[in-house]
Amino acid sequence: MDNEAGMGNNAEYLELARQLVAQLEAGDEEAANATVDGLTRMRESEMFQQIGRLTRDLHDSLNSFQLDTRISTLAEEEIPDARDRLRYVVSMTDQAATRTLNAVEESIPLCDELQNNVSEIDREWQRFLRRELSAEEFRALSRAIRSHLASSGDELVKLKSNLNEILMAQDYQDLTGQIIHRVISLVEEVEGNLVELIRISGSSESSSGSQGARQASDEEQQRSGIEAQGPQVPGVDADEAVSGQDEVDELLSSLGF
Fold first, then answer.
1. pLDDT tens by residue, 9-40
2. Domains held by the chain: number
3. Integer CA distances (angstroms), 117 to 14, 108, 120, 130, 132, in order
4. Where is the composition biased (Low complexity) (predicted)?
5. CATH at residue 203
């Protein structure tokens, strides 16, 4: 499209040049001056269009610096920080799992012992109810009940302690939940920045692809000169840059860029 516009401008230049030669040969100074003015206006219009395109490229490049700075911060600071946080979550989860498993492993034998004692006492008690126990067996049952009552108190205290240990081991979830939510927010921000980079890259490629080879090469050199400065823009406040972006976009759009 730009090539067609360039060919159209060349045709207009050629026609005006022919008119100027004819007017000069005819001695029509006034018409010749008007033709020269027309050529000057055409040239100024092209310069205006070129300046507008350069201004748009500069504006987009400066806006991309802010995004590049944020990505640099994410890569150098927040992503390593998130990695450390996730390692901490893994460590806390491992500690909680170890505490829980240890408490369960200690509790299972206690439960088995209580179950066996109760089953044995219940079996002998059922014989007593059926009047099948001798005096000696009844005395043995009494001793078993007394022993069970004495030992079960300590075993139940230990079971309660183990249950409390399991409960306390779950307190990591509040802290790790906050950390995981923060990492999720970071991942979402990285995703958004990558999408924005793809959008900017696609727009840049589309714009450069529609221009002529020479013009594309020149503008690429200009953009490279700007981008070579890197993402660091000393003295530029990020908040102010964002607040003025809409105004610049509106101005350039109103001028047709």
1. 667 767 777 877 787 778 877 887 887 777 77
2. 1
3. 114, 14, 5, 20, 20
4. 203-215
5. 1.10.287.500
